[in-house]
Amino acid sequence: MLGAVNQAITIAVDAMGGDHGSEMSVPASLTLLGELPELRIILVGPRATLEQQLAARLREFDGRLSIRDATQIVSMDERPQDALRKKKNSSMRVAIELVKSADAQACVSAGNTGALMATARFVLKTLPGVDRPAILSRIPAQHGHTHMLDLGANADCTAEHLFQFAVMGAVIAADLNGVARPRIGLLNIGEEHTKGNEIVQQTARYLSKSSLNYIGFVEGDDIFSGDVDVVVTDGFTGNVALKTMEGLARMLAQTIKDEFTRSPVRRMASLASYAALSSLKVRLDPRAHNGASMVGLAGVVVKSHGGADEYAFANAIRVGLLEARKGVATEISKLLSKEQALCMTEPQVEGS
């Protein structure tokens, strides 16, 4: 995914976020530092705690690994407004401020999603032309991945918001997956042009006027088909869809395990199918797709799953590294300005 001869990129890691805190984030960071010579990491959290965990490893990665002290921790159930007002020296806040000051090019956190979004929006602000940031993640699909947004940041959206999401999704799909002209679909209750509410209909009109590769309405089963690269929807629908996918994946994994261990004969069959089952597990492993982008901010912020293990969190850091290297925020700003001028300016009435 990433080469070893690239310009140095610094990632600010909220070491204390998530269910496992520094017990997970520190080993994940050390593993990636060993793999990627261009990576620099600033671990943010209580200095004494992190120094005790790191021991001699700070010297091993001299100049590439450092600690930034933060005395507070945002809990997973903390209200976003409380985190903003009362936790100004939290590991989450300090990590985001490192991006603001350009001491880091991206922030990665497994912490409270609402608090992370609220704090990032307050500290970094949004890009010009962006009304609301959105949460984007990669969904396993037939062709590799489908990028889907919004996945929970904005329950109620206007057509303008959805149009902005489409532009942001197109940039992410192009930069992170190397898709020259990402195919963009608008999630709807049917593919027919007459289906959907007025917000969806207006969004479709905007997208049809744009230079984006808009392919029309898509339904839920199209997310996995390989026929679309970016699926756009509001945060309420997107989050419900995401949680449904995650639940189905867990159920299928458990059902397969139950069926293959139901009898000695089936256990023998599972051994014969081991290669295929192992490949399936790798393709559908949610840890491999960990790292949701908070797009639309004036800086790179990546949200890891709160329950992520070392492998999953390392993949979230990889996402942040790649976004920073590609200059995703700048690319979004450029494309959005162009597309809004093309699609959202009212035609002049003759004689007015």
Task: For this entry, give a set of tags.
single chain; 352 residues; alpha/beta; Isopropylmalate Dehydrogenase; 2 domains; 11-stranded mixed β-sheet; 13 helices; 11 strands; globular; disordered C terminus
The topology string of helices and strands comes to EHEHHEHHEHEEHEHEEHHHEEHH
Number of strands: 11
Beta strand %: 15-25%
Query: What is the residue-mean pLDDT, rounded to a whole number?
Result: 89
The CATH architecture name of the largest domain reads 3-Layer(aba) Sandwich
Describe, in plain words, how this protein is organized in 3D.
This protein has 352 residues and is an alpha/beta fold. It folds into 2 domains: 1-130 and 296-336, Isopropylmalate Dehydrogenase; 136-287, Isopropylmalate Dehydrogenase. Helix content is 47%, strand content 16%. It is built from 13 helices and 11 strands. It has helices spanning 22-35, 47-54, 57-60, 80-86, 91-100, 113-124, 159-177, 198-209, 235-260, 264-272, 274-284, 310-326, 328-343, and strands spanning 9-14, 39-45, 65-69, 106-109, 134-141, 144-149, 183-187, 213-218, 230-232, 292-295, 300-303. The protein has an 11-stranded mixed beta sheet with strand order 3-2-1-4-11-10-5-6-9-7-8, sandwiched between helices. β5 (134-141) and β6 (144-149) form a beta hairpin. α4 crosses α6 (113-124). The chain is globular. The chain starts with 8 loop residues before the first strand and ends in a 9-residue tail after the last helix. The model is unreliable at 1-5 and 347-352 (pLDDT under 50).
